[in-house]
Amino acid sequence: AQKITQTQPGMFVQEKEAVTLDCTYDTSDPSYGLFWYKQPSSGEMIFLIYQGSYDQQNATEGRYSLNFQKARKSANLVISASQLGDSAMYFCAMRENSNFGNEKLTFGTGTRLTIIP
Amino acid sequence: KAGVTQTPRYLIKTRGQQVTLSCSPISGHRSVSWYQQTPGQGLQFLFEYFSETQRNKGNFPGRFSGRQFSNSRSEMNVSTLELGDSALYLCASSPTQNTGELFFGEGSRLTVL
User: Fold this and answer.
1) Which of residues 66-85 of B touch A (CB under 8 A)?
2) Cα–Cα nearest to A19, from A70, A69, A84
3) Dihedral over alpha carbons B68, B44, A85, A53 (to 10 degrees)
4) Measured between CA atoms, how close is B18 to chain A, in angstroms?
5) Helix (H) or strand (E) holding B43
6) Strands B64-68, B87-94: parallel, antiparallel or unpaired by DSSP?
7) Which residue among A24, A110, B4, B105 is least crowded, i.e. fewest CB within 10 A of its CB?
8) What is d(CA A55, CA A74) in angstroms, rounded to the nearest whole number?
């Protein structure tokens, strides 16, 4: 079974609109972390936001927020007021912490976001 | 603060050759992990090192190996290259164990002819 599922292969959004990128995950580990990364065409994976499974509040970083719904096992990324520079691939990833010191991330297949002027 | 540095950025090899890729983590970070990214398989975990010890290994053949030095710099090696090894190899670092953020470098793009 897929551990990280991103169901939107591609999205087109008008500039200045908000956009939600979907991510669902599957784990039986009570302790885990969820990440979102942005990958522009240059290839670098840019860290956007992190949510720990025990965090009480949804994570926010500037224009990025993570809509964490633990019971539904979803961790959607919300980008407010989208900009042309937001056009990129976006990856959701999970780290399961059952093994102490485990830094292995499992990635979804990504969503290609295109911002339209 | 300098980010994760990977060298070389681009390289071309032929089948049967071997290649070594280098990763310098963010200063103070002790954990380094490696990922392979291909269009067909997406992002896949290769291995992770902490304090010069391999703590975790992905499902790759023994041709893929790595090591970490005392200054936390890491290298990965691929021997007997195959066409399917063409990929973007990404290195990531984090300060310690199971911390929140994991930072990636720009990657080394390997083409095998």
Assistant:
1) none
2) A84
3) -90
4) 23
5) strand B42-50
6) unpaired
7) A24
8) 14
Produce one character per residue of A72-107: b if its CB has 16 or more CB atoms within 10 Å, e if not. Answer: eebbbbbbeebeeebbbbbbbbbbbbeeeebbbbbb
Nearest to A33 by CA among A9, A54, A10: A54
pLDDT digits (tens, 9 = 90+) for B26-44: 998 988 999 999 998 999 9
Q: Flag if B50 and A101 touch (Cβ within 8 Å).
A: yes
User: A37 vs B45: CB contact, 8 Å cut-off?
Assistant: no
Residue (of A84, A64, A95) closest to A16 by Cα position: A84
Contact list in B for residue A45 (CB cut-off 8 A) is 90, 92, 104, 107
Q: How confident is the model at residue A101 (pLDDT cuts 50, 70, 90)?
A: low
CB nearest A44 (choices: B48, B50, B106):
B106
Please state, in angstroms and rounded to a whole number, the distance separating the CA atoms of residues B63 and A71: 41
**C-alpha span between A1 and B71 (Å, rounded):** 38
Task: Report the alpha-carbon distance of residue A107 to residue A97 in Å, rounded.
Answer: 15
| % of chain A residues with pLDDT over 70 | 92
pLDDT tens readout for residues B43-84: 999 999 988 999 888 999 999 999 999 999 999 999 999 999
Distance CA B26, CA B94 (A): 8
DSSP A62: T
